[in-house]
Design brief:
The protein is built from 3 helices and 3 strands; from the N terminus they run ββαααβ. By secondary structure, it is α+β, with helices and mostly antiparallel strands.
């Protein structure tokens, strides 16, 4: 399925659902598109949790010193972090680097993605190996 993290319109907290998920079509078209099935088949937040997808709404204005973020990092054992700005004018070799995001790859360890601005899609497979 595809997990979409749209931008939150609220400055400090997001009372609206931040995560939306759906089963994907098998198209090889532009990978920046949603690739929803017709008709759309939504994936519930409970289904995402069952395969280990977790999400939190955080205050992006204090991400460097956010005690809530630090507590999550400590509880889950996250030690590595890096900050990137995925934009043509800020990411060197932008076109080449974003291609890596479009290549299917597996992560053996848990990862945290803290989105300060903008939105993104994250493709995950369910236990039945469906997108």
């Amino acid at each position: 399925c595809c997990v979409s993290v749209p931008p939150c319109p609220h400055a400090f907290s997001c009372p609206v659902t931040m995560v939306k998920a759906w089963k994907m079509d098998s198209s090889d078209a532009d990978q920046r598109e949603e690739h929803k099935l017709e008709p759309n088949v939504e994936v519930s937040l409970d289904e995402l949790e069952a395969i280990g997808v977790k999400y939190w709404s955080m205050n992006a204005d204090i991400y460097e010193d956010d005690p809530k973020l630090q507590a999550i990092r400590d509880e889950r054992g996250y030690t590595y972090k890096d900050i990137i700005n995925v934009a043509k004018d800020t990411l060197p070799n932008y076109e080449q680097k974003i291609k890596a995001f479009f290549e299917e790859h597996m992560h053996t360890d848990e990862e945290i993605r803290y989105i300060l601005d903008g939105s993104g899609y994250f493709d995950v497979r369910n236990k039945g190996d469906e997108w």
